[in-house]
């Protein structure tokens, strides 16, 4: 199998349903998701200790889901023949993990500086790339119809990374450093009534 095809030498690439310029918004969106997936893989190399096995396994799940999201964006909507792969259950899982990690880490009131342990710092990098992937996806959504779960998933994923980075620091006995000029921005939400 050849890894090179020479078909993209003139600035075009194939997507599901046709060919587009390599700087097309669709390619930019799923390409940023691919970049994010690489940063997640890099962060995983720093999470080999037993205290982080749950996060490591979740990140491996996220890597598969990022492939799903990228694949869903690589399809021209009108040419979609099979169901999309990204689904609401993926979003719900992230929300459950965010809630669990938020409960585990110390209460937070102010913005924090990205960093702490090498693993937490790597997760913060993934968080910022997830935000960029979300922005690229929103730009694409303004131009054409896309699978609506993808931007929702990316939004939750960046929140998941924030919560996971805080827990990694907490389990490493490191305090998050608050941004010194931050106002109180995180407030306790009132409990929902049954």
From TrEMBL:
<dbReference type="InterPro" id="IPR016030">
    <property type="entry name" value="CblAdoTrfase-like"/>
</dbReference>
<protein>
    <recommendedName>
        <fullName>Corrinoid adenosyltransferase</fullName>
        <ecNumber>2.5.1.17</ecNumber>
    </recommendedName>
</protein>
<dbReference type="GO" id="GO:0008817">
    <property type="term" value="F:corrinoid adenosyltransferase activity"/>
</dbReference>
<comment type="similarity">
    <text>Belongs to the Cob(I)alamin adenosyltransferase family.</text>
</comment>
<keyword id="KW-0067">ATP-binding</keyword>
<dbReference type="InterPro" id="IPR029499">
    <property type="entry name" value="PduO-typ"/>
</dbReference>
<dbReference type="Pfam" id="PF01923">
    <property type="entry name" value="Cob_adeno_trans"/>
</dbReference>
<keyword id="KW-0169">Cobalamin biosynthesis</keyword>
<comment type="subunit">
    <text>Homotrimer.</text>
</comment>
<keyword id="KW-0547">Nucleotide-binding</keyword>
<dbReference type="GO" id="GO:0005524">
    <property type="term" value="F:ATP binding"/>
</dbReference>
<feature type="domain" description="Cobalamin adenosyltransferase-like">
    <location>
        <begin position="3"/>
        <end position="167"/>
    </location>
</feature>
<comment type="pathway">
    <text>Cofactor biosynthesis; adenosylcobalamin biosynthesis; adenosylcobalamin from cob(II)yrinate a,c-diamide: step 2/7.</text>
</comment>
<dbReference type="InterPro" id="IPR036451">
    <property type="entry name" value="CblAdoTrfase-like_sf"/>
</dbReference>
<dbReference type="GO" id="GO:0009236">
    <property type="term" value="P:cobalamin biosynthetic process"/>
</dbReference>
<keyword id="KW-0808">Transferase</keyword>
